[in-house]
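Field notebook, page 380. I keep forgetting to write these up properly, so this time I am using the form the group agreed on. The chain and the ligand, pyridoxal-5'-phosphate, are recorded exactly as supplied. Prediction of the bound pose follows.
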Amino acid sequence: MLTQKRIKRLAKKHGTPLFILDHEEIRENYLRLRKHLPRVGLYFAIKANSDPQIIKTLYPLDSGYDVASLQEYQLVLDNVPRKNLRGHNLNDFIWDKIIVANTIKPAATLKQITNFNTLMTYDNYDELEKIVKHCPDAGLICRLKVQNVGSMVELSSKFGVEPGDAPELIEKAFKLGLSVEGISFHVGSQCCNIENYFNALEASAEVFKQVKSRGHKLRLLNIGGGFPVPYDDTVPEFEVFAVKLRKEIDRLFPKSIEIVAEPGRFLVAPAATLVVSVVGKSLRDGKMVYYVDDGVYGTLSGVVFDHCPYHFNAFKRGDAKISAVVGPTCDAFDTVSTAEMLPDLDIDDMLYVKNIGAYSIASATNFNGFPKAKIVHVNK
Ligand SMILES: Cc1ncc(COP(=O)(O)O)c(C=O)c1O
């Protein structure tokens, strides 16, 4: 955990906006997941933060990678040590360590990876027709539509086949001569509602049973991501969450079934801190509005796309007053928060935001010409 003093020192040295990424924290989060879910193989979801250094940091820990596009697939291959793939040849590494977890893949992408056996998800028949034509040696994972109740980011309105229709869709893949390895689900990102996992696990177990009764055997269950990060005190403690999850997995799935997950947020969100500077201030309708040098078009884009309510911490002490914090662009939509408790700040005073490593720089833009935050890696 970075101290306030170190955060300030780094910001003074490098300027703001500054995105400080702590690789020791990434390693700790990975090992924490491994410790509390020992049966679960981990594939880091690159979409959460595709900085190449993260791929490198996770490689020695034996992490796999969940990729959503050909570009992310290539990013992994470019950043793992191709000459020393832990005894794997490239084909075996791809089979063991990469999952293409986007159920919809352009035909061009399938053609590009057709020479490798790659695990990939699907949830509809048209996708199967594409796969059989362009990438018939893929290993398939059928994604189920599951309950995402209360999750910060909902995914099931766009992805997954209804569990009741899954056995038929799996059978269709086998009939096309494809190989289905297992099934997957995603309970929604930042899922604090463990019932979502319980329902999804029950539904998955039922699909395993149905598929078996049709004479096919599945070997893999992918429980997706969603593991919650403590953005505030209401988030359940992960250790308690994990015990329940572990017990339910063991109750429903024999040891012969391989269990994997695709965590994104859990590994990287707590590992980054953003430091911004106040570049302007204005009293508007009796409330102080601070204009800072990063906003919703930049690192704080998660406010929009990730539905994540970020909060600012001041280095300065003093009586806290309710204030608004807005970004630097010419758009009023670029409002990060209308209710931050902050002391009186002057131009050039700095603020910092914790837990901002996931879905932040991943969706930042250069709108209005403002440069993206500088990234500084610590504890590499
Ligand atoms: C298919 C898939 N897998 C994994 C993830 C990562 O989820 P999380 O960041 O909640 O761990 C996502 C996030 O959107 C996803 O869509």
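OBSERVATIONS:
- The domain at 4-19+270-378 is CATH 2.40.37.10 (Lyase, Ornithine Decarboxylase; Chain A, domain 1).
- The CA atoms of residues 50 and 231 lie 21 Å apart.
FOLLOW-UP: compare against the apo run.
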